[in-house]
Write a structure and sequence with these properties.
120 residues, mainly alpha, de novo design (two linked rop proteins), 4 helices, elongated
């Protein structure tokens, strides 16, 4: 038996994405661990946890709400990656790879967060 959200491709991808962000955060020097590292971890972790919470809700409006929160966390991660790159802790190729994955996850969440035409 499994939870419904575990079958969502976007949840699986966001787990892998969050794991990659944790690895990136681990590479940030101690001086920036609280400001950048911890914030990156929290924002990245927020993506799959909000997808899971949304997946467990019964009403479409509640699901959409949590999917939108997850999407906002994707945006937060991208913003943090830019700053981490400006500090010299993320090379361009890895940034592009993570940015592409963030963009794809965001697009899926946008689709999931759209109001449906059916009634609840």
């Amino acid at each position: 038996m499994s939870f419904k959200f575990e079958s969502l491709d976007v949840w699986k991808r966001s787990i892998d994405f969050a794991d990659a962000m944790f690895s990136l955060a681990d590479e940030i020097p101690q001086k920036y661990q609280f400001s950048l590292g911890e914030q990156l971890r929290r924002a990245a972790l927020s993506i799959p946890t909000n997808i899971a919470e949304g997946g467990g809700r019964d009403s479409a409006k509640e699901k959409q709400y949590f999917f939108r929160i997850a999407k906002g966390s994707v945006y937060e991660v991208v913003s943090l990656m830019v700053m981490i790159g400006k500090r010299g802790f993320l090379d361009r190729d890895l940034y592009r790879k993570h940015y592409q994955e963030a963009n794809e996850i965001s697009a899926i969440l946008t689709s999931l967060a759209k109001p449906s035409d059916s009634t609840e």
